[in-house]
Amino acid sequence: MNFFRSQTMGYYKLIIPRESAWNVMNELAELDCIHFVDYDPTLPMINRPFANYIKRCDDLLIKLQLIEHEMKKYYKKITYCKDVNFLIKNFKQIIKERSKASHTYLDEIENDIDKKHQQLIEQSTNMENLHERRNKLIEHKSVLLKGEALLGQSFFQPANYVAEGYVNLQGKELDDIKVLQGSVKFNYLVGVINKEDQIRFKRIIFRITKGNAWMNTMDIESDQIVDTKNDDAKIIKSVFVVVYPGGGGSNVITNKLNKICESFQVAKYTFPENNMVFQEKLRSIETELVETRNLLEMTKNQVEAYLDDFQRVYQNSNCSQIEELKLFLIKEKYLYTQLNYLRVQGSVLYGSIWLPQGADIKVDSALREVQTIYEGLPTGQLQISPPEGTKPPPTFFETNEITWGFQEIVNTYGIPRYKEINPGLFTVMTFPFLFGVMFADIGHGFCLLLLGIYLCVYNREIKESDSLMKHALIVRHMVLMMGFWAFYNGWIYNDFMSVPINLFGSCYTEEQLPQDEQDIQDKQDEYYWKQKQNCVYPFGIDPVWMCVPNELTFMNSYKMKLAVIIGVIHMTFGIILKGINALYFKNWIDFIFEFIPQLIFFTCTFGWMDFLIIYKWFVDWTGNTENAPSVITLMINMILSPGKPVNPPLWGDGISEASTQTAMLLIALFCIPIILLPKPLILNSQNKKRYALNANNLSENLNKDLYQKINEDSEGTQENSENHAASSGGEHHEEFGDIFVHQVIETIEFVLGSISNTASYLRLWALSLAHGQLAEVFFQMCLNGGISSGGFVGAIRLLIGYSIFSMATFGVLMMMDVMECFLHALRLHWVEFQNKFFKADGYAFEKCSYSKVMQDNAVPKEE
Predict the structure, then answer these.
(1) Is 754:601 a contact under the CB 8 Å cutoff?
(2) Where are the transmembrane segments (predicted)?
(3) CB within 8 A of 829, min separation 6: which ones?
């Protein structure tokens, strides 16, 4: 079973002639079954043989990104690739039909992209310059028109200078300033400023001139000026006119205003002094604007023609040209990245690979196919080899659409060790179930179940649409199973949005107390619930328990005990999986001195507690509830008062029960030193023997190494020295203190963790209680009042309350509580279950796959 344990891996040597390296790797990357071993993980990619090819691909991808950005700016629709395998076959066919070497196709692509990119850059630069020129002309034209509207015809006439000095223009209108024109000479400053800077500009001018200036502004039409540096976004600008007293251009106010304009990057313009020059300037600007618009239109058409080339879907392709080029470059970059994992020696590339069992036949077939397709080219060789070093094989599980999501939950915590039992197999079953225990509700679970059914049934339609549900498709089966178990457990708790359902008829009837007992009881307690003889509610909890005063006490007790039972069973199963792992790896030390005492310890403590809970459920305590013992009290007395007769007892006279509990306690305590002491002592003895044996072997090999260093050539000497270094440094002698401290930590973690982990499973009760209470609060506050009132007022209250109830239920219970229950189920698997057997120190099988890397990049990134 490939999902229970990792597939069996084989270690092979791959030898490829350099002249056919591209062709061989191109065939192997289509197999999706090879894991290349990096010969030197510490060597940077930039120092490897094919780093230059990877850099070329990166540069070309950057250029394509710029072209794609231009296409989006011109609203060109890109057809993305939906079937990368079809595109891979298309690339293969194109390369096969060429008469040149296969790897030179990248050179053709590079030349084509460089040429088109350069042409597009030139046209885009021309467009930007023309836009800048058009903006300047529009600004100048607006200055003339708006300035004339602000200043009037009188400013075309030269003023007679009489005096120059301080004139307070604060609060004066333009007509008042014109009256002063005969006695004071005025200067003006005309320009264009961004509207967002307008208020700050006014304030600074007022402060600098101390009110000795008049300023007014008028907005330019918002659709005329564009920002060429921000995707041609529209810019709102304003024409401003500043009038201030002074003669000449070198006075203090003029210098200050010029500095302010420079700080705001204001465009300043000159205003004609007579009407004839004004009209002539206006006509000249209008003529230039028409010419600029025509040039812009021509340039835009040329740019769109270039972009249409990239947008077009060519024959024998299933996507736009730009997408096809991008995926080809990603494929080429990936190919050369894999080649960089191989060592280059002369005209040969060689390296190590991992293959799943049986995949070597596919690789041999692919190598033979290279020689068939490309006649005259030498092919590669595959040789089985013993693994080098101490690193174990990679872990590989075959997953499908259902198991992928659950395996990702496990992998997020850690990759399983090679051949270790995969927790993902059991997570498929236990994760949705534990979620359902916490989210248990018939109504809410059914809503989640419907969502899962909808995602599974309309999977293809949603995938091809732009719906937000598209992002949930990858976990649709998980949502379906979570909804099913929430719906199922809702029936177990008999809870439909805090309302019980009397589906099978209650086993209790409401009876009136006898007359003599009514005198003693309160008036409100004249009735009691009487159970029918030999009646058992067929499925779930009898609905009458939701209508009695002690409902919360009963449900709390029931859910708490159920959570403990589920938790102990779940963790016991984890301990059993540890024993199965130890048997598979033939690790008898772990099996005898860890698994067996841990299982006995856990069974004698928390397994015993589960037994007491279930046994108490099987005893009929009707009419004798005051003598029913508390399970918590029994467990506490088992530790604090061992051997003392149990009172009240669960069975018998309490002596046999006390003896059993004492025996359980002694067995559990005896297991602790068994877990702690034997393993480090045995490991230390084994390490000493192994260290002594290695020391003898090392001394015997020293003379052989010396003789080989004298007689072998330099290349052989280097390889021998590497082997010698590996043999001498591969074994690490671990001290007894380190082993013992590690085992002490393991023992304390297990013993104390058994208590804390069992308590942690109480979250199954806590979250179920919180969910039920929230649902009840929403029902009571939003719907119960309208239902109780009745009539027209009740209908209005019900209508308003239902809208609030729906929003609160969706936002709090269907969104926040789903996420909360999901995270708590995640924690129970990662911490409480997996730590019993899961090492999580493996590494994943990274298969060399064109389809995977291209599929990951075929989906457009959302902005």
Answers:
(1) yes
(2) 433-456, 468-488, 562-584, 596-618, 663-682, 799-819
(3) 409, 410, 423, 427, 430, 431, 434
Distance CA 226, CA 300 (A): 15
Amino acid at 502: N
The dihedrals phi and psi of 495, each to the nearest 5 degrees, come to -130, 110
- Report the C-alpha gap between 823 and 811 in whole angstroms: 17
Q: Where is 352: in which H helix or E strand?
A: strand 348-356
489 contacts: CB under 8 Å, gap ≥ 6: 436, 437, 439, 440, 445
Q: Dump pLDDT digits (tens) for 589-643.
A: 999 999 999 999 999 999 999 999 999 998 888 778 888 888 898 899 888 888 8
Tokens of 378: 């030498």
Contact 443, 486 (CB under 8 A): no
Contact 60, 406 (CB under 8 A): no
Q: State the Cα–Cα distance between residues 592 and 370, nearest whole angstrom.
A: 53
> How is residue 603 annotated by DSSP?
I
Cα dihedral across residues 515, 519, 521, 522: positive or negative: positive
Residue 256 — φ and ψ, nearest 5°? -65, -40
Q: What is the DSSP letter of 469?
A: G
pLDDT digits (tens, 9 = 90+) for 242-258: 888 765 544 788 888 88
Paired tokens of 54: 């990877």
- The tokens describing 346, both together, are 């002369």
Beta strand 9-17 pairing with 381-384: antiparallel
Helices (H), ranges, 312-349: 321-339
Own/partner pairs for 43-46, CB < 8 Å, 24+ apart?
45/337, 45/340
- Determine the Cα angle at 284 with ends 278 and 290, to 5°: 135
Owner of token pair 């804390």 = 756
Spatial CB neighbours of 36, under 8 Å, sequence gap ≥ 6: 338, 341, 342, 351, 352, 353, 848
Look up residue 164 and give its amino acid: E
Which DSSP helix (H) or strand (E) runs through 191? Answer: strand 186-194
How far are the Cα atoms of 193, 446, 481, 487, 558 from residue 484, in angstroms, in the given order?
A: 64, 7, 5, 5, 22
Model's pTM, two decimal places?
0.80
CA angle 173, 179, 181 (to 5 degrees): 105
Numbers of helices and strands, H then E, in the chain: 30, 13
Give the SS3 label for residue 234: strand
The values of phi and psi at residue 776, to 5°, are: -70, -40
Rounded Cα–Cα distance for residues 3 and 414 (Å)? 16
